[in-house]
């Protein structure tokens, strides 16, 4: 049984514990080379034709990178040119320990058969395992292990036939390691030397990460930042509470300010404010850092100034802007303030952005400005600066030395011309981490084979509901129809209502590549002119989509209700349906309203509509909130795909009709799966917001002499209903928009991992997502759970594992959040395109928020929000501003702005910064001399928008 | 990245074993002269000592006596120094009582108790060093001790643990693997007949995985039985050399 020959014990001490572990050494670990005849391996990974053309190594060679090369030069290793690389187990373990994302990337490379990367388990090989010597550090031991393994390879393959030419090349950037390797007769090169010697691809040099050795030459010796503390000191500090650990969040508006979110137990989480370059100390957005609190007398208030890093021309130039931060602040506004003392974990990813070309001609070092304002500018070295001008590119950070104003990075890839619709879409998808590449062959291989049809076998397992008068109601142009409805009279006088949901889980089986891909995407992302599907189109727009007049599989939820919309019984079943009509909201509304129509579909719709109204009334009585957020819809030109008109979405009665039944189905299913699987039901909750969130809403209402109660959802809903002002009907909508901003995010969770299930917004004790499995992965899981609960499908291990499900929920929550951001970014981009083509527009708007130096305005016609600044850097004399916290009001010269004031603005596109084009608003009315502008007339004349609705 | 990688992509476990491989087993019988039978076993870093007394008259209360077979009395304990963390282990704590009970059930299934009616067999096992698979080491040590005592058994009882990592069953778990999360199962097998003497699992496991896990544990048990068999044969040889004249 045991193939071990030798038997070594490895001792690892940590703290007081002495851990003894066994460590078996084997002699059945193969070298993985095609040359070798000794090793009994099936399919060797390393090729015979292992030649990367290089001036330095003009012979067949296998590369062995050390840990730091893998950690820092992963972009190089990922290049298709680099093949036949031996990754030692020692290296892999160290990488795993030091960086999760890089570990994943190197593993992806190893799995790619084209790359011929071989993992050699050297730590368990009887001839390459070494024990740590006395007084040898763990790092030195690992370096030695790498050299021993490289040496072993050389000797092992020397005996192989036809391998005379073959050499092993060690890649290391560590001088000591290189010297020691050369002493023992190994060929060792520094990574950059090797890459520069490559004949085939000179551009690869651009992707080299700058190592600390290089950066010495390019920056002044002056120390700009305090030293980071070593991890051991940080850990001690955190233990005795002198330091706090938290996530660094850079401010979007002010590059000299950030907050560190310190995770505490329960309510204990808090935020620490960090101000000034020195205190920020090279932390980058999303890093996990250690902070030290400053003494109380040095605490400051968050500045409400907007500051962007224009980048001093000269590195040595002192940052004078920092003094601007120091504003007078009342005692109450002071926040715990601290400074970053060390970095616990970097969270760098490749960033999209643009190159700001150096002023000096022929220079190879340039500054890169990321699209995300929270990320500092990055210094990169490239020879293609001219070619990259005006292009969106991707850059990765390599490091941030303490004497450098900016982090160092390297070019990863070119995304295309800035301003180009395709490129910008790509950028916003990348920036929001939306997986959007085409589905792989592996994924597509799990699709049903066409032509697809329903078999006898299928019919046996399903209820045949094809004779029912089912129809679907969706927005116009919808091709992924997940839901359809029916309603009919029963003989006993009651009504039967059915919600039929596309049976996606029939087509996506647990665990296969298709399922994994869908789980990873988590949701379909809808951009203004593009949809990024969660599942391949064949399913989303065809086989799963409940189109009219075709037989489709459905998962049906059928209730018997009386005329008071009380549920008498609930039934779930897998079914086959044949939708009689795919209607739009408007079409459905027309049928309901048209007294002449009296066909089955119309009667079914009327029944549904009647019940929906009762359901909605009941829900609102229970305290459900009806909130509002202006949603924008573009009319896209069918040829140029440019937006030609912009309007807010109009809600019809039928929208709410469909919504009501979806809610009902979701609640019924949530209850069912929770009853059946109390530990692993996937549910959705919406926590009640902390009372302080409502402050702004209460203040705003008070300024209009209205009262908003926020003790409970019911109180809030009722007081919102009563908050009306004669002659200002839009006020109620504004209050609801504001209330929406006070809410928390709704999240998915696993019932076994949480105890609070309440859905605040819907005032429901339990809730889940069941009704959109084509575009949300959570619904697929819920379908599977429900299918098991009713015995229609079998279970599988991961479905019942609450930890795995909890991890899945985290991913889904993340993807949903990112998809929302991506959608908003897409709307913003299209708004810009729209204004670019339309020129200036003069519109009426309302003040949504009042800030210290600006007012934020909502244009109801477009659902567009914009900021009017009253301070400009280039202006000689700014107007006098008085900000009153209590109102809140802002007095500019002699005019006082308060929330909800009606104003008139001119809207235009500010394209001065190509990377951050933005909508600019300028005040027309009220007229304030020196502040407001005259209404421009060059824009096309527009009809005065109807505001009162 | 937290946690240990229990199984590498190349298919090696933390200590270098492949998923189905057992740890190194070393065993000796007759280590303790006063007792009727005794054995010492090392399975990797888990070390156990088993001592058997009997069959003898039932001690203590007579009411325990069974008229058709022998009573088996098991006692399990762990040495204070057996784990990395030194702690006092009072006698009869919940864990050891449970383990004692499991051992009793295992050996009631294996020993031909009906040959010794109205008598008692005592089996004492002590874990000297613990590194996962305590139950299996105890069963294997006790088997050897029972054989050493010359008490007839249906077959060797071999025990082994098995666990699950990313859909791969691992045999004979060490402590790091046991505590690394995931479900583990202990199985005692009578290898020749393939009968299961005891099967114990505390955590939840999906039904789909149960068969593969039991399969893995059974294969491991069979492997162990070969090792135990060779230990017994070697012991016999040594003893017969000593008693030849
Ligand atoms: Zn070989």
Question: Brief description of this entry?
Answer:
Chain B: Keywords: Acetylation, Cytoplasm, Exosome, Nucleus, RNA-binding, rRNA processing. With 949 residues, chain A is an alpha+beta fold.
3D structure, described in words:
Chain A is of the alpha+beta class. Chain A is 29% helix and 24% strand. Chain A contains 26 helices and 38 strands. In chain A, strand 31 and strand 32 form a beta hairpin. Chain B is of the alpha+beta class and 245 residues long. Chain B has four helices and nine strands, in the order E-E-E-E-H-E-H-E-E-H-E-E-H. In chain B, the strands form two sheets. Chain B has a five-stranded mixed β-sheet with strand order 1-2-3-5-4. In chain B, helix 1 crosses helix 2. At the A-B interface, strand 2, helix 3 and helix 4 of A face helix 4 of B.
Write down the secondary-structure element order of chain B.
EEEEHEHEEHEEH
Number of helices of chain B: 4
How far is the first residue's CA from the last residue's CA of chain B?
Answer: 65 Å
Percent strand of chain A: 15-25%
Distinct helical segment count of chain A: 26
Helical content of chain A stands at 25-40%
Number of E-state strands of chain B: 9
Tell me the fraction of residues in β-strands of chain B, as a range. 25-35%
Alpha-carbon Rg of chain B, integer? 18 Å
Overall radius of gyration of chain A: 32 Å
Organism (chain B): Anguilla anguilla
GO molecular function, one term (chain B): RNA binding
Subcellular location (chain B): Cytoplasm; Nucleus, Nucleolus; Nucleus, Nucleoplasm
Main location (chain B): cytoplasm
């Amino acid at each position: 049984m045991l193939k071990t020959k030798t038997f070594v014990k490895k001792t690892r001490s940590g703290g007081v514990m002495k851990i003894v572990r066994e460590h078996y050494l084997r002699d059945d670990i193969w070298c993985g080379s095609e040359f070798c005849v000794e090793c009994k391996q099936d399919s060797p990974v390393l090729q015979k034709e292992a030649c990367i053309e290089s001036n330095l190594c003009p012979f067949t060679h296998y590369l062995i990178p050390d840990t730091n090369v893998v950690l820092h030069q992963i972009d190089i290793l990922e290049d298709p040119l680099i093949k036949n690389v031996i990754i030692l187990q020692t290296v892999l373990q160290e990488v795993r320990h030091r960086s999760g994302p890089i570990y994943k990337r190197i593993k992806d490379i190893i799995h790619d058969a084209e790359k011929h990367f071989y993992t050699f388990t050297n730590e368990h090989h009887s001839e390459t395992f070494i024990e740590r010597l006395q007084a040898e550090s763990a790092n030195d031991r690992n370096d030695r292990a790498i050299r021993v393994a490289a040496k072993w390879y050389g000797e092992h393959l020397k005996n192989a036939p036809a391998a005379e030419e073959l050499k092993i090349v060690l890649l290391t950037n560590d001088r000591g390691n290189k010297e020691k390797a050369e002493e023992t007769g190994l060929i060792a090169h520094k990574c950059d030397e090797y890459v520069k010697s490559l004949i085939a691809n000179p551009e690869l040099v651009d992707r080299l990460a700058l190592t600390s050795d290089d950066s010495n030459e390019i920056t002044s010796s002056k120390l700009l930042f305090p030293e980071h503390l070593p991890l051991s000191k940080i850990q001690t500090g955190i233990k005795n509470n002198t330091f706090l650990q938290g996530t660094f969040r850079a401010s979007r508006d002010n590059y000299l300010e950030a907050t560190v979110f310190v995770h505490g137990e329960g309510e204990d989480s808090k935020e620490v404010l960090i101000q000034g370059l020195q205190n920020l100390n090279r932390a980058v957005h999303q890093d996990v850092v250690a902070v030290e609190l400053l003494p109380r007398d040095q605490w400051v208030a968050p500045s409400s100034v907007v500051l962007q890093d224009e980048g001093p021309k000269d590195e040595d130039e002192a940052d004078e802007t920092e003094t601007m931060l120091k504003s007078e602040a009342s005692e109450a506004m002071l926040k715990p303030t601290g400074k970053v003392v060390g970095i616990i974990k970097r969270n760098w990813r490749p960033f999209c952005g643009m190159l700001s070309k150096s002023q000096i001609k022929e220079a190879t070092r340039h500054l890169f400005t990321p699209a995300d304002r929270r990320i500092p500018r990055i210094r990169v070295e490239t020879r293609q600066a001219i070619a990259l001008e005006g292009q969106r590119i991707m850059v990765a950070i390599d490091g941030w030395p303490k004497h450098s104003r900016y982090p160092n990075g390297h070019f990863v890839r070119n995304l295309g011309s800035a301003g180009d619709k395709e490129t910008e879409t790509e950028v916003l998808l990348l920036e929001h981490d939306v997986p959007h590449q085409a589905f792989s062959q592996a994924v597509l291989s799990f699709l049903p084979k066409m032509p697809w049809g329903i078999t006898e076998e299928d019919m046996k397992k399903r209820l045949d509901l094809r004779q029912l008068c089912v129809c679907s109601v969706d927005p116009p142009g919808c091709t992924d129809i997940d839901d359809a409805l029916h309603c009919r009279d029963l003989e006993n006088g009651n009504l039967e209502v059915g919600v039929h949901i596309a049976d996606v889980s029939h087509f996506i089986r647990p665990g296969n590549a298709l399922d994994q891909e869908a789980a990873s995407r988590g949701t379909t992302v809808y951009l203004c002119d593009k949809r990024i599907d969660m599942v391949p189109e064949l399913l989303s727009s065809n086989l799963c989509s409940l189109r009219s007049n075709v037989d489709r599989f459905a998962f049906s939820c059928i209730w018997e209700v009386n005329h008071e919309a009380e549920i008498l019984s609930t039934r779930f079943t897998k079914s086959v349906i044949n939708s009689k009509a795919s209607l739009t909201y408007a079409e459905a509304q027309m049928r309901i309203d048209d007294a002449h129509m009296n066909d089955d579909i119309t009667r079914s719709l009327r029944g549904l509509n009647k019940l929906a109204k009762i359901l909605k009334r009941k829900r609102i009585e229970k305290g459900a909130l009806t909130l509002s957020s202006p949603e924008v819809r573009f009319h896209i030109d069918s040829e140029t795909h440019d937006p030609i008109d912009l309007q807010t979405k109009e809600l019809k009665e039928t929208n709410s009709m469909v919504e009501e039944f979806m809610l009902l189905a979701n609640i019924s299913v949530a209850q069912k799966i929770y009853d059946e699987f109390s530990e692993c039901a996937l549910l959705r909750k919406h926590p009640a917001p902390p009372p302080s969130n409502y402050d702004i809403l209460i203040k705003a209402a008070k300024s209009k002499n209205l009262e908003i109660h926020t003790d409970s959802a019911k109180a809030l809903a009722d007081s919102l209903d009563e908050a009306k002002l004669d002659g200002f009907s839009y006020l109620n909508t504004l209050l609801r928009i504001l209330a929406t901003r006070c809410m928390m995010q709704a999240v998915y969770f696993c019932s076994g991992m949480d105890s609070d299930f309440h859905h605040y917004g819907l005032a429901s004790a339990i809730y889940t997502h069941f009704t959109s499995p084509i575009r949300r992965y959570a619904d697929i899981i819920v379908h599977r759970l429900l299918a098991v609960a009713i015995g229609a499908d079998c279970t599988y291990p991961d479905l019942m594992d609450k930890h795995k499900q909890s991890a899945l929920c985290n991913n889904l929550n993340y993807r949903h959040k990112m998809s929302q951001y991506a959608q908003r970014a897409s709307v913003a981009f299209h708004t810009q395109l729209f204004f670019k083509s339309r020129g200036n527009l003069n519109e009426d708007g309302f003040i949504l928020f009042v800030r210290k130096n600006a007012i934020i305005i909502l244009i109801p016609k477009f659902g567009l929000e914009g900021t009017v600044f009253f301070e400009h850097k280039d202006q000689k004399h700014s107007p006098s501003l008085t900000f009153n916290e209590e109102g809140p009001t802002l007095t500019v010269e002699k005019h006082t702005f308060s929330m909800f004031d009606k104003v008139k603005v001119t809207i235009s596109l500010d394209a001065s910064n190509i990377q951050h084009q933005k909508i600019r608003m300028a005040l027309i009315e009220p007229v304030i001399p020196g502040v407001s502008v005259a209404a421009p007339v060059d824009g096309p004349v527009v009809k005065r928008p109807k505001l009162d609705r | 990245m937290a946690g240990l990688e229990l199984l590498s992509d190349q298919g090696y476990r933390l200590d270098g074993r492949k998923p189905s491989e057992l740890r190194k087993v070393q065993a000796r019988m007759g280590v303790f002269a006063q007792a009727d039978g005794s054995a010492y076993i090392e399975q990797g870093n888990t070390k156990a000592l088993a001592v058997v007394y009997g069959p003898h008259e039932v001690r203590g209360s007579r009411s325990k006596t069974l008229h058709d077979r022998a009573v088996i009395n098991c006692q399990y304990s762990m040495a204070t120094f057996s784990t990395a963390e030194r702690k006092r282990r009072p006698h009869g704590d919940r864990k050891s009582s449970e383990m004692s009970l499991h051992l009793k059930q295992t050996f009631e299934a294996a020993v031909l108790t009906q040959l010794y009616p109205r008598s008692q067999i005592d089996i004492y096992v002590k874990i000297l060093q613990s590194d996962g698979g305590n139950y299996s080491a105890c069963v294997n040590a006790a088997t050897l001790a029972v054989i050493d005592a010359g008490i007839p058994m249906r077959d060797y009882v071999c025990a082994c643990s098995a666990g699950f990592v990313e859909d791969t069953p691992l045999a004979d778990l060490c402590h790091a693997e046991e505590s690394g999360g995931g479900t583990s199962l202990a199985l005692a097998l009578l290898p020749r007949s393939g009968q299961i003497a005891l099967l114990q699992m505390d955590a939840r496991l999906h039904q789909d995985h149960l068969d593969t896990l039991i399969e893995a544990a059974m294969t491991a048990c069979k492997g162990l039985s070969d090792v135990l068999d060779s230990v017994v044969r070697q012991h016999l040889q040594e003893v017969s050399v000593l008693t030849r004249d």
